[in-house]
Amino acid sequence: MMFGQTQLPKATHQKHNCKRGWVSMAGTAVYITWVTASLLGGILLMPFFRPAGKRVTLAGFVDMFRRYWLHIALVFSIYLWKDLLDGLDRILMANTHLDMTPFVYAIEGDLVLWVQQTFLNDMLTFVLTHYYVAGYMLLTYTASLYFTYFDDRWMADRVLLSMFFVYALAVPFYLFFNVRVTGDHIPEMQALAYHLTPEIQTWFTRIDPFTNGMPSLHIGIPFTVWLGLHRWDHDERWRKYRIFVGVYIAITAFTIIYLGIHWFVDIVGGIIVSFLAVNLADKYHAWLWYRLDERTFNARLAWLLADFNNPKRVLSGWMSRSVQWLKTPSTTQTGTAVMLLLATTGGVLLYDATHQDFPADGVTYPEAAAGADGWLVALDADENGNLSAVIIDIENDKTYHNNLDLNEDGNQSQWGVINASTEVLISENHAVVWQGYRIITLKFSNPGTHAYGRTTGPLYTDLALLDDSNDKQAKLFAIDDGVVIDLQSTAPYEVFTSIPDDDVNLIDGEGNSLAWVTESSPMTANILSLDGVQNTLSVQVNATVDSAKDEQVLALTGAIVDYANASITGISFDKNHLVAEVNLSAVSRLVMVNLDTGEQRIIGDPLFPVANPSIGHGVVAWQHKWGLNSMDPNDAELDWDVKYHIILENHSYQLHTEDEFNQTEPQVMEGYIAWLQDSGGEEPPEVIIYSLEETFEPYSSRTLQIAIITLIPLLTIWMIQRQRENIDSTDEEE
């Protein structure tokens, strides 16, 4: 059975070079263009929105930063917190799969889809995509700029603090109430903004986890500004600006629905957190800005540092007031205790939920590892470089060690081989360690027994391990000079005639099936089932994407995506799917094929390098260098990270935040993913095991139990205090 492949027309080298500068500029300039347009737009609109009697001068900007630098820093700290919490949210989603989108869809249905399909228009999509980003920046900049530049401290104290509170109130929803964008949930819905161009798609993918729908900050922030103006602008000096913000909110509400980003419920959530934020700012602005007033901040700091006794006096006074505050219990103190208890418990659970991986026990310096089902086999080197196999039964938490009589340097000089590579192959019931001329078999049915080894005649170029259906015998196949050899045959070096090709360069095994690729058909993966009647399935893999993305690969790497010389360099498969790693010179891509229907899709980002796919139990894992710009790399993009894809959900999850650790050779097991992690010499490498199941450590369970028990008396005390305070208040009024 063959599945057809279409290829993009091969452009000439001259055409690629002509476009290269434009693509590179577009990839780096789109964000700068939005920022610049927003800043210039905000400045150009200042004369129109300025209060009566105010002027716009260049010197005013210097005074603005001098008088309001803490106000401005408070608002723009949101962007710093967002980067940190978005990374945390990606890991939390990967570990817990907390997805509330189905509940939102149950409420709304296809209402957002009707809006998009009714107004769908290419020009409207183009305009609103840029408006979605640049308009939001413009609103944020102007709200921070106008009140501070025109020295309206009354409004600046309240509105800027309200904007900060909006994001603070949204954080728990973003972490624990994940709602996906509509274009990622409704099949017919398109995420128009995210896919306008490859450059914009990459930018959005870099900064947005696509799960922070509820509440919408594109509504929450501007509605907070509008509501604050409505509440605090008593003399109507900002009337024109309030009307402008109101119009912006109306257009933005339509925009975020039309572009396939937000639900109507997200808009409601944005309005609610805006109302809460404005009320919090009204209550706490005086307390905060009395202490952080820029006009007195430097003087207070100078006084504090002028005499060593001054900090002691401040600390002593603060402690004395705190003790006095605790001596007069009321709903304020009890409510604070409840909030601290909830925050502490939530922090412990959040830490546990974002730390679902652990190092494998019994492995001190791993060289390689492989996993299948509930077994993990790692090669461990001692101080002399001698290798042993560490066999880990993950479910039963047992570890076995086997000496291999091999050295990590791969020196087999007695057979004329120096520095032979060492690999581990694994199946359901067996593992094989292969180094040069040595093949050593391990049996999981008796993992503590001495490993059985053999010495091969020829030096094979690849090896595949299968499991016999009776679970007693491991089947080994090898490639010798392009020909597949059956190593279980009674005749030595017997050619496996079921595969007649003489130019095989890659083989892999799964269960009782064998897959291979030939040099003459480098984009065709063949699978032979050895159960009963032997059947062969041939799949022609298609790794093409649209030409715009290929142009962006050219800008990122300086090399052309070479479809004409594409080749499969790695395969992993199970009964239902095959994943092929395709080398396209400029980049490598992963293509997943449904073996029943022939449907093919690219998983991972087709713009960036991927390697070492592993599939099993409905999960695909691989290593990638997402965001790598080979023309101008940074350290955080140079290391490999592990990502995994749940086939049934059709969603991929990132397992790591940005770091400088190399996570390589991921292995999918039943309920787990394992990989090698190397810090680059600072610490010994580790084998890391990640649990796909949501589990809480005992300390988290105990923390939750203690919190629930403690909440009962605290809430009871709070209600009694509240009733007493209400009675006292009524008596005073009478």
Automatic annotation (TrEMBL):
Source domain of life: Archaea
Alphabetized UniProt keyword annotations: Membrane, Transmembrane, Transmembrane helix
Keyword Transmembrane helix: yes
Transmembrane intervals: 21-48, 68-85, 128-147, 159-177, 241-261
Inositolphosphotransferase Aur1/Ipt1 domain ranges (all copies): 112-278
InterPro entries: Aur1/Ipt1
Gene Ontology CC annotation, any one: membrane
Protein name: Inositolphosphotransferase Aur1/Ipt1 domain-containing protein
